[in-house]
User: What shape does this take?
Amino acid sequence: MVCFWCKKEKENAEYEGKSRVCNPCIKVATAAPKRAPQVHAPNLVYSEVQTPQTCASCGERKDPCHYKRDRRTGKLHQRCLLCENAKAPLKPKTTRSPEEQRASRDSRLRSIYGINSADYDALFAAQKGKCAICPAPISERLAVDHCNIKGHVRGLLCTAHNVGIGNFDHDIRALKAAIKYLEKPPAPAILKARGVLKTAT
Assistant: This one.
């Protein structure tokens, strides 16, 4: 019988039971040193991330080797090793001035929707601070609704209705089908015929 490992013809006495590997090969395999366990290096500095990072506790800019790295995402922790070992609390985030907030808002509106804060305020005033779908004013900031195909802004909506239209992929036919479904759902008539419901609602 030919050994599966060494490919040599061996007598049946050199095999254990129905094994296809001869006893000498098994002894060599079991005597071989085991592979050393892999050591994780969370502080390894990857080539693509070499810029220093500011610690969220002490505020000092330090190289990535001074931070732990998340094993799942590969991102650096917010606090350096010294602060993490000392369990130092995170520094509170600095509040931006109204001018900085408006400039950041302008940049975001312009890059995504092609409008600025003045355009948003004009839409907000025209809608009297209300969602274009909801009848009552709401306290939260209204989201900018835009056409994903043509890219133009359609109006301001509350978060719930903006997400709802997005879930329908902005498809008017799907929205009309949903209205028809709500006006005349199929289940009450079927359940009434089966005697589950006394009256259809």
In short: Residues 36-49 have pLDDT under 50 and may be disordered. Helices lie at 23-31, 81-86, 98-112, 117-126, 159-167, 172-183, 187-193. The beta strands are 53-54, 61-62, 67-69, 76-80, 143-146, 153-157. Residues 1-32 form one domain.
